[in-house]
Each structure stands twice: as C-alpha cells, then as structure tokens.
Amino acid sequence: MEEDSKIRKIAFVGDHLPRKCGIATFTSDLLAAVAAAHPQNRCFSVSVNDIPGGYEYPEVVRFEIEEQDLSSYLRAADFLNISDVDIVCLQHEFAIFGGTAGGHILALLRELIMHVVTTLHTILREPKADQRRVTHELVALSTRLVVMADRGRQMLQEICQAPPAKIDLIPHGIPDVGLELYSPKTGGCRDGLYVDRVNRSQGAESTLAFLLSLAEMRLAQNTLTSFKEPIAA
Asked: Of the four, 99, 220, 225, 227, which is 20 to 30 A from 115 by CA?
C-alpha cells in the first residue's frame, strides 16, 4: 500500500477477540498488523456474535452482527456504506456466519458499494450443494480472493471456476510470541497455549504425546538419512 494510495479506511469483517475462535485471533492479529504497518489508514472491525449480548470487545470493534439474524447483516452493510469504507476485508469460514452454509454473509456483500477482499479459510474439495452455491456467489461478489496454499488456488479454479487473476496466494503464518511449549531442560511439555500465554500445567498426557511425536520425527529422519547413504557394492 503506497503513500499516495486512495485507500484510507479498511473494515475487517469476521470474528474478533475476546471471542475464543481461531478466526477471531487471525482477524485481530491481521487488523493490528495492517494498522501498525500503515498508520495513515484507519482500520476497524465488524464482528459476528455467536452468543446473546456479544463480548466485551475493544474499541476497534465498531459494529456487531448477530450470527443468526439476517437483518443484522443488512444493518452492517448500511453501516459500512455510510462509513466511507474503501475496502472490506472479509475473513470467510462457513461456520461463523448464520444461515444455510453460512449464507447470511451474502446478504451483506450484495449491498456493499466498495471493493471486497475475501480470505478463504476453508476451501472444500467436495462441497455440498449449498456450500457450492455460497462459495460461487462469494467468488462473484469479491474483488480479490486470498488463499493460504497453492492447492487452495487450484481448487478455487477447478471447483468454483474462479478467475486465476482474481486469486492471491499469501502463505499462512502465525505471530512468533516467543513462548516454548517444550522444555529441553526438564523434558516436560506444557498443556497448550492461551491467547496471550502458555498454559503452565504439565500434564502427563501432553508430555507423552510430545515424546511420541518426537520419536516418530526422529524415526522418519533416520529413515530418510538411510536412503541417502550409498549402497555397499
């Protein structure tokens, strides 16, 4: 995004922290990264609620959508249109939107007057009829489509007939929070990660699961190494 770009306001549509959802974490991190990299732009979020009353969102969440309320999606479209948004960045996952196959989000997209960049978090190899219908219209209503793997790009073209020039590949990544689950000093493994910290518990199941995985990786590495060694005459 160059300094003389006409893009001034970006709305991120999906889930948002503190909702405990992978898409919420992804959307929150993406918004924060874009806002930090381009401070001249104004970024905010439109978040989907899966519980009555929603969540205690940060100030960056400017509008809330009730997952199963179709009229809520239409109100969100009105809000985006009157807010002079230049680009809507949609984080798409079937399960986070209401309606059959998450189809309520299409009602919002049909009303928008700005460009839509859609990140597809799930691309199905064998979609059901409703999922195929939703995906086809999602492709048609989006200005650009973002996938996170080359296979996703191929599937969009083969299954949804998406124009190749419309698809951008941005490999999936996660922020490096500098936290270790495994301690090489003690041999213990933590039970998992919270949004902002490590779960300090060290259950036997977690440690055993890690050690089994480590053993499998070492076995695979030794097997590959043996193939590289020259065969004795």
From this structure: 99
How much of the chain, in percent, has pLDDT values that exceed 70? 72
Type of residue numbered 68 = Q
Share of the chain above pLDDT 90, in %: 64
Nearest CA among 112, 109, 120 for reference residue 157:
120
CB 178 within 8 A of CB 169: no
β-bridge pairing 198-199 and 192-193: antiparallel
195 has pLDDT over 70: no
The answer to whether residues 67 and 99 touch, using CB atoms and an 8 Å cutoff, is no
Q: Is 212 exposed, middle or buried (0-12, 13-18, 19+ CB in 10 A)?
A: exposed
Ramachandran category for residue 61: left, alpha or beta (phi over 0 → left; psi -120 to 50 → alpha): beta
- Cβ proximity of 65 and 55 under 8 Å: no
Say whether pLDDT at 67 is over 60: yes
Domains, in order of start, for the chain: 9-169 (3.40.50.2000), 177-233 (no CATH)
Whose CA is closest to 111, among 93, 144, 85, 147?
A: 85
